[in-house]
Amino acid sequence: MKGMGIPPITADLVTVLEFVGGIFLILGLLTPLVGLFFVLQFGAIIWMKKSKTHASFISMQQGKPTYEIDVVYLLLALVFLVLGAGPYSLDRLLGL
């Protein structure tokens, strides 16, 4: 991470986001907020891959870095951000 110019605390924050955020998404708790954090995370991942490793969206060359799966996760996080939790969620139960 130091080679890419990212502070080491970032790895800890992403770990907490993915663990706690994943649990919150399963429960349907604070879904749009968690979706926003995931949008920011995957936006940063895509930006870092493009700027630091010169990744392409899709590559036919073996071993060349790509970011197409990151775009899929970013779009999924946008769905959570925009649509929120479903009818069987803690958000709905608590009226959030």
Give me the number of helical elements: 4
Radius of gyration: 16 Å
Total domain modules = 1
> Which secondary-structure class do the elements indicate?
mainly alpha
The main β sheet shows up as:
none
Descriptive terms for the model:
mainly alpha, 96 residues
What does this protein look like?
The protein has helices spanning about 10-25, 30-50, 70-85, 90-95. It has about 100 residues and is an all-alpha fold. The chain is built from four helices and no strands. The mean pLDDT is about 85. Helices cover about 65% and strands about 0% of the residues. It has one domain (about 10-95).
How do you describe this structure in short?
The chain is mostly helical and 96 residues long. The chain has helices at 9-27, 31-52, 68-83, 90-94.
